[in-house]
Amino acid sequence: DGGITQSPKYLFRKEGQNVTLSCEQNLNHDAMYWYRQDPGQGLRLIYYSQIVNDFQKGDIAEGYSVSREKKESFPLTVTSAQKNPTAFYLCASADRLNTEAFFGQGTRLTVV
Amino acid sequence: AQSVAQPEDQVNVAEGNPLTVKCTYSVSGNPYLFWYVQYPNRGLQFLLKYITGDNLVKGSYGFEAEFNKSQTSFHLKKPSALVSDSALYFCAVRVINTGGFKTIFGAGTRLFVKA
Questions:
Q1: What is the share, in percent, of chain A residues with pLDDT greater than 90?
Q2: How many Cβ atoms are within 10 Å of B64's Cβ, its own excluded?
Q3: Distance between CA A59 and CA A48 in Å, rounded?
Q4: Helix (H, G, I), strand (E, B) or coil at B62
Q5: Is B112's Cβ below 8 Å from some Cβ in A?
Q6: Could you report the per-residue pLDDT of A86-108, keeping only the tens digit for each?
Q7: What is the distance in angstroms between the Cα of B28 and the nearest Cα belonging to chain A?
Q8: Integer Cα distance of A95 and B11 in angstroms
Q9: Least CB-CB distance to A43: which of B34, B41, B105?
Q10: Any CB–CB contact under 8 A between B59 and chain A?
Q11: Which of A75, A80, A69, A66 is nearest to A21 (CA)?
């Protein structure tokens, strides 16, 4: 089955801790994206990567970090510097021309 | 600035009636436009896209959208709504960025279809 997988589905973090969200795709897509979704708001772009070993900041990158060591994987780390991390996080991938984005099922992160 | 707007937070329709969810955009060049649907606690699912060609685009689940270049709009439509169409709908546009492309999304419109 081709697709994009996010894990875990639910994640709880204590204040002051870093936490890493996983995103894996087997669609052979060059581009991968991380979005944050808050209630009543649309999707806001955190980071994106057009190619392996390269990534760019999106609109709300502060307090987050990413890596793109493999084409299939684009993990997102939510650091303790992110002041309001509780949200629904969505990963997506697309071909180089961005003709259609494929989304994972999301990770709901809650700070306790 | 390149952007996409969904002017309605919520749309209410009765089952069997036609529905329209509005979207306008502002991009340089020829736009790639998309509609996605999201069910609770799930990722987004692709419905349809416009790249070039016929202004009326047909997509999944009986949805269609009309590209109007002069009005810079890409409204989503369905002739007869179902209760199961109730969900959150996002309009999106591809924009050119350093090193490639990225997709930006509207704020979303929640559709309620009443039986």
A1: 78
A2: 16
A3: 10
A4: helix
A5: no
A6: 999 999 999 888 788 999 999 99
A7: 16
A8: 32
A9: B105
A10: no
A11: A75
